Amino acid sequence: xxDNATGSAAAERGLAEAEPGGVASFDNADRGPIRRLQExxxxxxxxxxxxxxxxxxxxxxxxxxxxxxxxxxxxxxLQQVTIIAxxxxxxxxxxxxxxxxxxxxVIMILASVVMGRTAVVYGxxxxxxxxxxxxxxxACGFVNGLIVTKLRLPPFIVTLGTWSxxxxxxxxxxxxxxxxxxxxxxxxxxxQWTGTIFKPYDFFARMxxxxxxxxxxxxNYGSIVMLLVAAVIWYVLNKTAFGRHVYASGDxxxxxxxxxxxxxxxLIGVYALAGFICAIAAWVLIxxxxxxxxxxxxxxxxxxxxxxxxGGTSLxxxxxxxVGTLVGALIVGVFRNGLALSGLELLWQDFAxxxxxxxxxxxxxxxxxxxx
Length: 372
Hints:
- It is a single chain.
- This protein is 71% helix and 1% strand.
- The chain has helices at 3-17, 33-43, 47-63, 71-96, 104-120, 126-150, 155-174, 181-187, 200-206, 221-239, 241-251, 253-258, 263-289, 300-310, 322-341, 346-371, and strands spanning 197-198, 219-220.
- The chain has 372 residues and is mainly alpha-helical.
- It is a multi-pass membrane protein.
């Protein structure tokens, strides 16, 4: 009897002896606690940043008693991280596609210069100058996406090049001149609106609500813009087809293309949207400093990447969340503020942030290695 006939006979005997209605089962070795922990962290990557944030709050509440937990101090932290959090949202979109954008900071600065200089120096109505700034950010992001997709160049190299190009355009258009707060207030006060201070307790008190825990909090409208931007992008990523395409393109672009996803169009949309968000950050930046400076936000590129990485978004793409980025920005703000209140120099604040980055990336690779 041939080998094929022998195999067929054995298969028929196996089917005949099988129990009716039986279900195939596979041996599953008992997983240890470390393995289960890794799978949980892989499934809920935002849990790590939340734990780190909680630990930081507890540590600094003892290291700087009476100061760190003050409502005004928490308000200050929130205001300090607002711009970085908005840029972090833009950077999250890019990193989810397994890319990186080194130009987000300079796009923000260029958009702020377009808004402010067009309105104040050239006397263009703010109703036109403001959309022009948003359009400038959108165009910069679109150029990044177009080069990445059409020339098939690594996003790191592309955005490194456009970082220099957009920076040169910023110097050319601004003429390296700043716009004073008084001039901005006279010609385009709307651009300063995001810096307007308000007290949440007084706001709710006028509505007849006495929320005592809000006493001492002082916020600005830029923080509200940050939350709105984060909420919109969270919805886009989690509730729309475009969001699913973003995750799929970052996780496995070849499989995404086989599934019918136009990955090039998705990437161009991601970079353009990121540029638009950077322009919104420019509006918040103007409100923060009161005027326009072509030198503002020089470290914003690296700060945004820091917030995203510490927030649990994988540098390899396909995994991460907007909530994690917001928490990551808060972690940076909490550690810098707490160390400053504890009396440590700026040197050690940078040291602590650097350690956080290395630890975050190490944990990410550990989770990916075990869960793959």
